[in-house]
Structures are given as C-alpha cells and as structure tokens.
Amino acid sequence: MLSVSNLSVQFGKRVLFDEVNVTFTQGNCYGIIGANGAGKSTFLRILSRKQEPTSGNVHLEPGKRMSVFEQEHNLYDDHTVLETVLMGNRPLYEIKTEIDALYADYSDENADKIGELQVTFEEMDGWNAESDAASLLSNLGIKEELHYTQMSDLDGKQKVRVLLAQALFGNPDVLIMDEPTNDLDYDTITWLENFLANYENCVIVVSHDRHFLDAVCTHVSDIDFGKINHYSGNYSFWYESSQLAARQRAQQNRKAEEKKKELEEFIRRFSANVAKSKQATSRKKMIDKLNISQIRPSSRRYPAIIFEREREAGDQILHVENLSASRDGDVLFSNIDINLAKGDKVVLFSKDSRATTAFYEIVNGKAKPDSGSFRWGVTTNQSYLPLDNSEFFQNDLTLVDWLRQWAKTEEEREEVHIRGFLGKMIFSGEEALKKSNVLSGGEKVRCMISRMMMLRANVIMLDEPTNHLDLESITAFNNSLKKFKGTVILTTHDHEFAQTVGTRIIELTPNGVIDRLMSFDDYMEDTKIRELRDRMYAVTTV
C-alpha cells in the first residue's frame, strides 16, 4: 500500500537513513521506534510528503488516501470545529464546498453540475459526514456545544483532540500519527487504543507511550544503524526479545540447542500473555507467527537508574489533614486527608493536572494551601522531580559542578564520584562538561534523575517524570521504581508507569479524596468508583 524505495537522508556529514527499503501494508499498525535523534519524526514527514529525502522515493498506491495527524495547532483557526474535522477528508470536503457555492448562486445553468456532484458526494457517504464527524468529536471529549465554535476559541488541549478527529475522519487508507496521546486523558487514550486496535487500514505511529504501542501495534519498525526493520509483535515483545538476543550473543559458549529452547519458550510465554489480553483482536493473533530469529541486539544505550536509600524510613511517612487548594477561582482539591505508610507506591491522580502539581508544591514547601496541614515523618528524607525544572538550570555550570551542588560529603564532591552518577544517565566523557543552561528537555530530566539518585532519599515524588524522555530512559526509569524499596508518590500520563509501579491510587477532586489500595487498571475499570468520581467532580468554585 505504501512503500519506501532506496531512501537516504543526510544532513551535512551525518547520515540519518541509508538506502532504506520498507513496505507498509493494509491491516497492520506499525510503531516506529528509535533512540532520540534517530529520525522518527523526520521519517514521518517524508512519508507525508512534508519533507524531501536526499535520495529515493515514497510511493502510495493509486486511489489510496493518506491522513496525517497535524502538529500545527493554529493551522485551522479560521474554521469551525466541525468544518476542521471534515477537512480531514479533503476530496469529500472540496465537493461539499463546491456544492454549497453552487447552491449559494443557484441557477438553471448549474443545476446539472450540482446533480453530478451530489451523486459523487453520495458515493463517498457524504450525507453522513457531519454526523460521523460529530460522533468522533464527542468520543474524543469535544462536547456538542463546541462543534460550531471557531478553532481559534479553543484551548491547546481541545485543539489537539479536534485535529485527532480530523486525522481519523473518513477512514483513510494510511493513517500517520506522531505522538497522538500527548495532552489526552486516560479515558480518551483508551478510546483511541480500542479504535486503532480494530482499524482495518494501515496505521504508522510514533509514540513514547509503551502501553499505547502494546495495545495498537501489530509490528514494530525499528530505526537503528541507519536502517528500518519491521518486526512482528508489539513493543514489549520487541524490547524483551532484543534483550534476550543481546544476552544470547554474550553467551557464546552456550549450545545452539539450549538457545533455541530458550527462544521457543519465550515466544510461547509471550503469545499466551497476548492471547489473554482484554484488548486482543483478530489482527493481534499475528503473534502466533512471531519469529525471534531476525531480531538482533540494539545499538541503543539504556541508562542505569538505581535508587538507593540513605536509611530506611519508620512507619510514619506523610500525614495530610484537611488540605485544600485553589487557583484562579477554581477549587483544585478540598478536605484532603491522607496518611501514607512505609513502602506505599502511590499514583497521585486528578482530572485537573493543576491539582497534583499544587499538592507536590505544598508538601515540598514551595506553595501555601488554602487550608489544612501536612507533616512528614521524622525519619523521612525526600527527593522531588517537579513538572517544571527550569529553576534548576539558570546557571552556566558544567554538569559535574551542577551535580556537585547536592553533594553532602567530601567524598561525594570528588569528580570521579560525580561522574559516576552522570555516567549512569549516559553523560560520559566530554558530555559531563556540558553547560547546564544549554541542555535539551530530555537531558535536563536525566540530570534531575542523577540528582535524585545522589540524594538517596527514602521518599521519591515524581510529577510527570516521563516528559521529554526517550523510550530507553522511560523503560529503565520504570524498572528502577518497581525495584525501589522506599515510598513513591507518582503522577504520570504513562499508563505502563501507573499500572506497574502503583499499588495505591489517590485521586484529588474538588470535593474530597478517593483513596484505594488497588492497581491503576482495576481502579479505572471499577464501575462504582467511576460513578463516585463523576459525583466528586461536580463544579466547585471559590
């Protein structure tokens, strides 16, 4: 359906792609993965004809339509919401526009032309177009009263949802999406997962959300060594099998029969897990055809994130009593009573992200509550990864000197000790001498993780820790938190993080707190809790 032939991309002396030949076929969903800078977004721009390669070409089968999830949020500000969605199917929209123009200047002369266009319009299911577009918008959280609103009057998160509806509208033959889950809540992401898992055409997607990739992908397309290779299965299968391939390559002395038996058992185990998935579809039965023999060890570097505690905390961790906070006339949360126990791994959650950030700022002494109090246990020491880390990077210190600011002893101040923590986060050699005020978003987060490891706290607080990180860092971070023996308070839009780390869910609402000892998936799927949440979010203003 969509093929790439002899594709090469070069910027100066840097070769991004070298003679790439791949084909994307109907009925499959391809998750494009690769380290930061590997060229994922560049590849999508080339597929969608928004960027020319250095050499080679992209061929879309004649008569097939491609749709692209737009990243330019202000592109349709002069149009209504519903009209913007209809523009996702450009041929249908152009016919509709022409019919409307002819009716506006109706005469006997153009009556025949209108009739011809209406026949074509009907063949394209045009008479159901507006209702289909409205249904998509509603499923994506854009209420009916907004459908005829100008796009310029929507906020950024609403625009993202409208542009997502535009991309999905009209059943395109090839659907290209770059980070489609950004700015979506869990319920909307779940809807999108189900939609794409049952989508019958071709999907090509880049995402840092592992749960999303696992839910929708039939194939992983790995950008590595300047090439792109397709592998059957979802992201988890690719990750685990590539790790297995690396271990087997390192064990050169093992007999071939032992290796083959290990591979076969791995595929059986993974296939069984997928078959039990609540999201299993007929497309996902392709897992039965998995073959690990073609997968080779990746060239990627995974950070070594290891959180150790300076001391073990006592039984009293954090006591919160009658805590309330508001912003700009909106009640974020009120009457919050919480008592954390040693070893709790809490997913702190709210429909309004301002609520969780306000809670972290209050318990870290950076903001005052409207009412209430909190008290940390005397044996606790905390480290905090804030949503906005810009205040930490205002100087021009080298990374070695930057991290040295949090050293507690002379031994910790030694450069070899500092470089050890930076090296674990892949700042080695000259990279450790970079200036702290010129770092990228991902590099800043990796520095903050180095700082957290160095602090050796027994309570870790994380406000959207996966922002700006690549899949390798996210995976390593996730694994480290699962192993951590201390207490974790975590807010994240990464479903896999929430489900695999959290053992307790605390949801802050304008009318109190919901506090449950259970997994994140169980919490989100519980119908009684869902009904309670709806009541707790009744509009409250100061």
Gap between N and C termini, in Å? 56 Å
Largest sheet descriptor: 6 strands, mixed
Radius of gyration: 26 Å
Broad structural category: alpha/beta
Beta-strand fraction estimate = 15-25%
Please, could you describe this protein's structure?
It is a single chain. The protein has helices at residues 40-47, 81-86, 90-104, 108-123, 129-139, 156-168, 186-197, 210-216, 235-250, 256-275, 353-363, 399-404, 410-413, 415-424, 441-455, 471-483, 495-501, 520-525, 527-536; strands spanning 2-11, 14-24, 29-33, 55-60, 66-68, 174-178, 202-206, 219-224, 227-232, 316-327, 330-341, 345-349, 371-376, 382-385, 459-463, 487-491, 504-509, 512-516. A six-stranded mixed beta sheet has the order 5-6-7-3-8-9, with helices on both faces. A six-stranded mixed beta sheet has the order 14-15-16-12-17-18, sandwiched between helices. It has a three-stranded antiparallel beta sheet with strand order 2-1-4, with no helix packed on it. Helix content is 38%, strand content 22%. The radius of gyration is 26 Å and the shape is globular. The chain folds into four domains: 1-64 and 173-300, P-loop containing nucleotide triphosphate hydrolases (Rossmann fold, 3-Layer(aba) Sandwich); 72-170, no CATH class; 303-381 and 457-542, 3-Layer(aba) Sandwich (Rossmann fold), CATH 3.40.50; 392-456. It is built from 19 helices and 18 strands. Residues 275-288 have low confidence and may be disordered. The chain has 542 residues and is of the alpha/beta class. Helix 3 packs antiparallel against helix 4 (108-123) and helix 9 runs antiparallel to helix 10 (256-275). The longest helix has 20 residues, at 256-275.
